Amino acid sequence: MRILLVGAGGVGGALTAIAARRDFFDLLVVADHDPVRAERAAATDPRYVAAQVDASSAEAVTALCREHGITHVMNAVDPVFNMSIFEGAFAAGADYLDMAMSLSQPHPEAPYERCGVKLGDEQFAVADRWEQAGRLALVGIGVEPGLSDVFARYAADHLFAEIDELATRDGANLVVTDDDGNEVFAPSFSMWTTIEECLNPPVVWEKERGWFTTAPFSEPEVFDFPEGIGPVECVNVEHEEVLLMPRWVDCRRATFKYGLGEEMITILEVLHTLGLDRTDKVRVKGVEVSPRDVVAAVLPDPATIGPRMTGKTCAGLWVTGTGKDADGNPTGPRSTYLYHVVDNEWSMQEYGHQCVVWQTAVNPVIALELLATGVWKGAGVLGPEAFDAVPFLDLLTAYGAPWGQREQ
């Protein structure tokens, strides 16, 4: 396997640290628009090579793939670049993986009731082309989407006879402080992506209605997260799980709620009110800039905040329905939370990367290993739900980050 990693930021850097301990690939080209960042990440393993790339150019991605004989393209940049990387990989004859799908567009007339362009629609529109070519685009294989989608497959195959709801619930108790020990606002993940998913209309799926939307931050609920994180208020957020799970897993409802916290919600609402969430460029003193790019640029780089961060992050799937025994016989009502918790102290000590980007990066590395060894196989545009969950979860434990299961 010869991998092109597009993006050497927080997640890309963590991905190289994790992959360096595995032997399933021959070459990993670390490509970024910033050659210094690519070279820094590539310096950690002799199988790594640094390169510069314009992720907005499908032709540039194709050329880099051909130059290095790439078999798999791993997309680790903001999803605004998804389609150029996706198309560049196909043109080069390589398989493709990403951690977030092609972007959505709200319905022009009823944004909080009906879907417009959904997450992943552009990619699924060409699924037949990928399948006919015998090529795989494995989409949404980060932590969320990604791990919770694997949990959905596991729950359907091994725990439930019938599923009422697949409810992704993510939360954390992370705190970032300045040099004086004062708590500061510093998002642990890409602010560009956070704005995109949190201010767009959230999507819900129901068997009787299909996909529909609600208002941002709707339907708040308090969810008690495991391993000391505790109760966190969670709200509806647009996310790929809701668009992926019903395609492969039979359920009556699919939702995604995230524990944003009051401060984050307030900041996002203010950004929206001021128009600072916009991606179209405005002219400022003769220079054209995107307001959202400016917001992302003035905040701390998520890759750098690890030493000043404490706490844990949790990604998981709360499944309700009718359970089943080992023979597949229904056993009555069941409510189970499948989860993965990472402590920032552990990830920093073990890998030198903060817990949120590490948790995101470990899942595509596992997926690449399963593809390299032939345990996972497929063609077309597929989500994690399309594959056997057990080998993935076994490897997650083998990587030193075991998952958990709690009856609710």
Report the span from N to C terminus.
41 Å
How is the main sheet built?
9 strands, mixed
The CATH superfamily of the domain at 147-355 is identified as: Dihydrodipicolinate Reductase, domain 2
Structural class by SSE content: alpha/beta
Polypeptide structure, described:
With 408 residues, the protein is an alpha/beta fold. It is 34% helix and 27% strand. α1 (10-19) packs across α13, α7 runs parallel beside α9 (240-248) and α7 crosses α14. It starts with a strand and ends with a strand. The longest helix has 18 residues, at 355-372. Strands 7, 9, 10, 11, 12, 13, 17, 18 and 20 form a nine-stranded mixed sheet that branches. It has helices at 10-19, 35-42, 58-68, 82-92, 121-124, 127-132, 147-159, 191-199, 240-248, 262-274, 291-298, 344-351, 355-372, 389-398, and strands spanning 2-6, 27-32, 48-52, 72-75, 95-97, 136-138, 160-172, 175-176, 203-206, 210-213, 221-225, 230-236, 253-258, 282-284, 287-289, 309-310, 312-324, 330-343, 380-382, 404-407. The protein has a domain at 147-355: Dihydrodipicolinate Reductase, domain 2 (2-Layer Sandwich), CATH 3.30.360.10.
Compact summary:
The protein is α/β, with parallel strands linked by helices and 408 residues long. The protein contains 14 helices and 20 strands.
Provide tags for this entry.
alpha/beta; Dihydrodipicolinate Reductase, domain 2; seven-stranded parallel β-sheet; nine-stranded mixed β-sheet
